[in-house]
Write a structure and sequence with these properties.
92 residues; mainly beta; Immunoglobulin-like
Length: 92
C-alpha cells in the first residue's frame, strides 16, 4: 500500500487538503473524516493508496467538501477552533 503525496494548508479557519491520486477513478476513493484527521484510501486491483492526515485542530466534520479532478483530490473543511474575533467594549 502506497502513501499518496499530500499538502495541507490553513487559511481563515478553512483547512485545505490536497492529495495526489494518479490513475484512480473517483468511484474508487474512500474518504473518512474524524474530528482530528482525514483518511483517504483506494483499494483496487491496480492501485492501493492509504493516507491518514492528522490535523492540528478539531474540524467540523459536517462542513467537509471534496472535489476530484485529473488525479487531484481537494478536500476543504472548517476548523471548529475558529480564531476568536475581537469585540469593542463601550465604556459607560
Amino acid at each position: 500500500m502506497r502513501e499518496p503525496l499530500t499538502d495541507v494548508s490553513v487559511e481563515n479557519d478553512v483547512i485545505r487538503i490536497v492529495v495526489e491520486l494518479p490513475g484512480v477513478q473517483k468511484e474508487d476513493i474512500q474518504l473518512d473524516c474524524a474530528e482530528t484527521s482525514v483518511t483517504v484510501s483506494v483499494d483496487t486491483e491496480n492501485r492501493k493508496f492509504r493516507k491518514t492526515v492528522p490535523l492540528e485542530t478539531n474540524i467540523d466534520v459536517d462542513s467537509a467538501k471534496a472535489e476530484y479532478n485529473n488525479g487531484i483530490l481537494e478536500i476543504t473543511v472548517n476548523s471548529k477552533n475558529k480564531t476568536p474575533e475581537g469585540k469593542r467594549i463601550e465604556i459607560q
